[in-house]
Design brief:
single chain, ten-stranded mixed sheet, globular, binds guanosine-5'-triphosphate, 16 strands, 12 helices, 32% helix, binds magnesium ion, binds inosinic acid
């Protein structure tokens, strides 16, 4: 049984949290990371320690799962090897021999004058230039890098063998739907599609094998970097009772940005995992969420950070424990998107979860 987790908005929806929960709860035999590459930072906690993972699958929190990185993913050997050490996963992680490799020159090109970091606000991790070179078919692959020799595998063989054997496979997406090169807010997007079908292709699993697609949404929205953000908090949006209450609380704590969006980023502690940039904050965009669920073929939606909008719901683990206001908020998202919210996250810890799956 194969499940895929993807971001429904602009990335940073808390996929790391959802994936680590599923890794511990469902005990997948195999967990594979898909997506663009080290431009993504997933936040996960293991034994009280915080990790901001850019290469290693978040599912490493389950010590028994075998870990893979799919051929579609760009690998930065330095970051990969460092994280293998930090997470102590050397004996159970493998990457596809066909992963393309990011080199110094890709990173340099990403940040040079008027290049991607300035124009689209890229993460500066070299992913855009590396994918461009991959399309030119001149890039180096993992099989050509001596330091990666001991980690190489044929990931589709491994994953499909697990599927045939009736084992559970969890595929981790990165980024979010609105950053898709195909469907996002072009040109302010990443260098590849970010929908569930892309994730399946990244790790070499055919569409007929996918049983479940979890699309992760934050209860509000955030975007790091440049580009359109229709529901970003402006003066008018900030006047809704929900934001008014939170802005007043921020003020009482001495948190004040240049506008409501920045104030709320400070209040929520919303900073980019990779770049440290303050994220922009906005209202939940229902029509975007509906479209994103459609293209992703969502079977389930997961909603994170409910506790940030409704602090009284912090660490609640059963639906009945949510306030009426929070229940109504979740119900509205379900109705607008047309998919059931089966995972509701109420805090950063893995266990802070309401699990409504059958
Ligand atoms: P990308 O692949 O970069 O899109 O990452 P991501 O979706 O894994 O998200 P990231 O870890 O970058 O950011 C999410 C932040 O929200 C992290 O700091 C998490 O610890 C935090 N978080 C996730 N779920 C919850 C939640 O339900 N409540 C609270 N308070 N924080 C949460
Ligand atoms: P790049 O992927 O580094 O080229 O960046 C292109 C755009 O995607 C920028 O706006 C980045 O901020 C955004 N982006 C890429 N990866 C992530 C992510 O994992 N989380 C949030 N934003 C991302
Ligand atoms: Mg992130």
């Amino acid at each position: 049984m194969v499940s895929v987790v993807v971001g429904g908005h602009f990335g940073d929806e808390g996929k790391g949290k959802i994936i680590s929960y599923l890794a511990l709860k469902d005990n997948p035999d195999v967990i594979a990371r898909a997506g663009v590459g080290p431009n993504a930072g997933h936040t996960v906690y293991k034994n009280g320690r915080k990790y901001g993972l850019r290469m290693i699958p978040c599912g490493f929190v389950n010590d028994k799962s075998r870990l893979f990185i799919g051929a579609g993913v760009l690998v930065d050997p330095q970051t990969f090897l460092r994280e293998v050490g930090e997470t102590n996963t050397g004996d159970r992680i493998r990457l596809d021999m066909r992963c393309a490799v990011i080199e110094d020159r890709h990173r340099q090109e990403d940040v040079k004058d008027k290049h991607l970091s300035k124009t689209v606000g890229s993460t500066g991790t070299g992913c855009g230039p590396a994918n461009a070179e991959r399309a030119h078919r001149t890039i180096k692959l993992a099989r050509d890098v001596p330091s990666l020799k001991g980690f190489l595998a044929d990931v589709p063989e491994e994953l499909n063998r697990a599927v045939v054997g009736g084992k559970r496979v969890l595929v981790e997406g990165t980024q979010g739907f609105c950053l898709s090169l195909f469907y996002g807010t072009y040109p302010y997007v990443t260098s590849k599609d970010t929908s569930a079908s892309m994730m399946a292709a990244d790790v070499g699993i055919g569409p007929t094998k996918i049983k479940r697609v979890y699309v992760v949404f934050k209860a509000y929205m955030s975007r790091v970097g440049e580009g359109p953000f229709e529901t970003e908090l402006d003066e008018q949006r900030a006047r809704s009772p929900l934001w008014k209450r939170l802005l007043e609380d921020a003020k009482s704590k001495g948190i004040q940005g240049r506008g409501a969006s920045e104030t709320m980023a400070g209040y929520f502690g919303e900073k980019g995992t990779v770049t440290g940039r303050l994220r922009r904050i906005g209202d939940f965009d229902y029509s975007m969420a509906r479209y994103s669920s459609m293209v992703n073929g969502a079977t389930d939606i997961a909603i994170t950070c409910v506790d940030k909008l409704f602090p009284e719901c912090g660490k609640v683990r059963d639906y009945g424990g949510l306030s009426d206001e929070a229940k109504q908020y979740v119900r509205k998202i379900e109705e607008e998107v047309g998919v059931k919210a089966t995972l509701i996250s109420t805090g950063p810890d893995t266990e802070d979860m309401i699990d409504l799956r059958e």
